[in-house]
Amino acid sequence: MAEIANGCEEWGFFQLVNHGISLELLERVKHVTTECYKHEREDNFFKSSTPVKLLNELIGNGSEGKIEDVDWEDVFLLADDNEWPPKTAGFKETMTEYRAELKKLAEKLMEIMDENLGIPKGHIKKAFNGGEGDKAFFGTKVSHYPPCPHPDRVTGLRAHTDAGGIILLFQDDEVGGLEILKDGKWTDVQPIPGSIVINTGDQIEVLSNGRYKSVWHRVQAMPNGTRRSIASFYNPSYNATIEPATELVEKEKKDLHFGYPKFVFGDYMSIYTEQKFLPKEPRFQAVRSAV
């Protein structure tokens, strides 16, 4: 628990081993996501995707500079109520099992954060669900970052903080590229085989009253190898009200909420969608103004 507290307070990122998810399941996840990319998505990426078109134009025109507003990424979202890739054998069964395990792990981590922060057990989960019940959003972003012929001219995924709550990443253990901003310097997140990388989003920063900051991170485009990245998000319900936990607000500053606003998560997401790759502090200010 002390190591998790340190990871949350000092880094905003940490790698979790002994997490209770079987290596056999993780190997199946690797297999079905790789097969899905190869057989259902890779050709389309190189033939018709926006980043490939823009990069070809940039190089073909002999232009200097870098593509600034597109990521070198193939990505799709898995949620309970959307369409999943239909052709890869075992994909739905494997990813359904994996998502159920990850959701349980996220809820366990939230309880540990509650205890480390000194707030009532179940506080974060209850806040995210808008009370009792199971209304929080749990999504899984399946990304692949193909080899890039000009990795200095485009970013795999532009620098940002995550909007939501707890993010659980099963990253490639061979192809790197993930970096976090620590003390003003970009630092590699070196893969540990079989680990799950945890990071905290903007909503945990608010609920913890700034104790657990969301951290800037990015993915560099790489010249060799396809990087697989499977990020699951335990986010508040769009109707959930988010504010700093009462126990963490100093009494004399209770009305100020130590600078963090009270807001409805859906309102925050409306702003985040427009400002994802910009500093987060104006987002907090804008959502305060919207209340």
Give, in spatial order, the strands making up the sheet with the most strands: 1-8-5-10-3-2
Helix content: 25-40%
* Percentage beta strand: 15-25%
Largest sheet: 6 strands, antiparallel
Residue-averaged pLDDT, rounded? Answer: 94
Order of helices and strands: HEHHEHHEEEEEEHEEEEHH
Counting DSSP E segments of at least 2 residues, the number of strands comes to 12
Which residues form runs of ≥5 with pLDDT under 50?
none
Tertiary shape: globular
Outline the fold blueprint.
Layout: H1 2-11, E1 13-16, H2 23-48, H3 50-60, E2 74-78, H4 91-117, H5 123-128, E3 137-145, E4 157-160, E5 166-171, E6 178-182, E7 185-188, E8 196-200, H6 202-207, E9 217-219, E10 227-235, E11 241-242, E12 263-264, H7 265-275, H8 281-290
Helix pairs in contact: 2-3, 2-4, 7-8
Protein name: aminocyclopropanecarboxylate oxidase
EC number: 1.14.17.4
InterPro entries: DIOX_N, IPNS-like_FE2OG_OXY, IPNS-like_sf, Oxoglu/Fe-dep_dioxygenase_dom, Plant_2OG-oxidoreductases
Kindly describe this structure.
By secondary structure, this protein is an alpha+beta fold. Strand 6 and strand 7 form a beta hairpin. Helix 2 packs across helix 3, helix 2 packs across helix 4 and helix 7 packs across helix 8. The chain is globular. The mean pLDDT is 94. Belongs to the iron/ascorbate-dependent oxidoreductase family. GO terms for molecular function: 1-aminocyclopropane-1-carboxylate oxidase activity; L-ascorbic acid binding; metal ion binding. It is an enzyme of class 1 (oxidoreductase).
Q: Which key features would you list for this structure?
A:
291 residues, alpha+beta, 6-stranded antiparallel β-sheet, 8 helices, 12 strands, 20% strand, oxidoreductase, metal-binding, 1-aminocyclopropane-1-carboxylate oxidase activity, vitamin c, EC 1.14.17.4
